[in-house]
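Note to self: user wants both folds in one dump. Writing first protein now.
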Amino acid sequence: MRVRRWRKVATMMFWMVGILLLGGVATALGVYLAGNERVLMDWLQRARVPLLMWRLTLYGIVAAMWLHRVRAVFLRQAPSRGVVYRIEVMMVCLALLIEFTSYRWGM
């Protein structure tokens, strides 16, 4: 049992490091293709509205999948409905936080 627990922890750490590396590679590739960081930031400023539309589309797809497929299963399995509602409120707060930080730092 102890070995399985460490294997789960190691797998989770591997995925976390992999995601961080992927983000770093994406940033480095963006800077490389743009030429320098200032040009990349200028491009992100010009692409601000299309990126907002892209994020809103993704939020809509996630919300539709949640309401269509996942929510009913969670409501049946959860010990109380409040648990599911808290998850929903946390996700809305997370989306608002992402949009606030994107607006604040100009992306």
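First done. Writing the second protein, which came from a different request thread.
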Amino acid sequence: MLILAYRKRLDFSQEELAGRAHIAPITVGRIERGEFRVTLEHAEAIAAACQVPLWQVLKDIAEHKG
């Protein structure tokens, strides 16, 4: 499940996810579109905001790129 899917599952807007993860909304959009390389800090913040284990987010990101 990718970041957009996590966000949609929780019915969060990009702005809401960004606020919960303490990152800029534009960054959330760029990550979802694949325009921005996800840092470990961003992955950790998004995982916490979505209440998903960090390992699952990292696994999903790796599988999507592979």
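Dump finished. Worth passing along: The chain has a mean pLDDT of 90.
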